Please model this.
Amino acid sequence: MAESTVWWLLTGAAVAVELMTGTFYLLMLAIGLAAGALAAHVGTGLPTQLVSAAVVGGGAVAAWHLLRGRQGRPPAAAGNRDVNLDVGETVMVDGWQPDGTAQVRYRGATWTVAHAAGIHPSCGLHRVREVVGSRLIVEKL
Model:
């Protein structure tokens, strides 16, 4: 069996495992294995194939890691508008109860709302900051 065939089989195996696990870093390593296969097609020796696979795969992993680090973390699902479409919507709070909650009509149902931490409860129009269970956490507009 040709050396390039072994490299391509390893590349395919890495992609298959990546598809089962969802580990994007494994896909970057598969790119390195493909570089080793291309080096074998050119006719280089095994040490050169190994170095090219290591440099390309390691470089791809490092580049992806740095790129993801700069993007920052997405907000938690409770406060992420991409996950929960209630975030950012407005509700009218007519009055607060002594325990810091209020009842509002929203989307055709009665919801319990609570004010966000550090915000003094007041009546009026509020924006939904996050959803915790069946409770809307709101902030004054």
